[in-house]
Predict the 3D structure of the following.
Amino acid sequence: MVGSEAVEPTDPAQPGVQRVFQTREQRRAFYDKISRVYDLLADHSEAPMRERGLELLAARRGESVAEVGCGTGHCLAALARAVGAAGLALGVDLSPGMLAQASDWLEREGLAGRAALACADGAGLPLADEGLDALFASFTLELFDTPEIPLVLSEWARVLRPGGRIVVVGMSRAGGPEPMLRLYEWTHRHFPNFVDCRPIFVQRALEDAGFATLGSELLHMWVPVEIVLAHKARP
């Protein structure tokens, strides 16, 4: 824990957004530790949000798609089915433990040969420039510290072809200072080892990074969630 008070961000485009206190190594260790029980902890609340994000992305047969922060592999399996044998589905995650769970899930779903997995940081993807038709990320962007978010989105833009689509599902401050949102942020501030991410402004971050919004929705689980569909502008 860095301190008992939140550190205000320096980016005026994200006013009031808390900083992230954990290092990448701490984050990797945390997700390795909870990988076997992650679905029990989070799938019930997160799954409807992820599924709506996949609907907006609308991956098509033959496309090349990547999921950054693929976790236990549920969305990656859906992407692999959508793009078919002629397409490419790549799941990227920082945590070897989460990737092991994703591998097991793909095997159970009969998709082991239809999706690839890579252990990598979302800020440095093992992909060539402009090689993807689409990119999906759910409950991942808010894990990065506020000054890192523009750099991460720049990396995601790098791997998308011009006109390529991106969907980001993330906990949001756009819903206003709701009681549960305030409680969540208080918990993040005081117990960052247990609550390692915080709500951000998803659509604003994407647009500041140069993406053009095609559609956005603000839904609720126990905190507001933004689901934003955007595309990389053509030259």
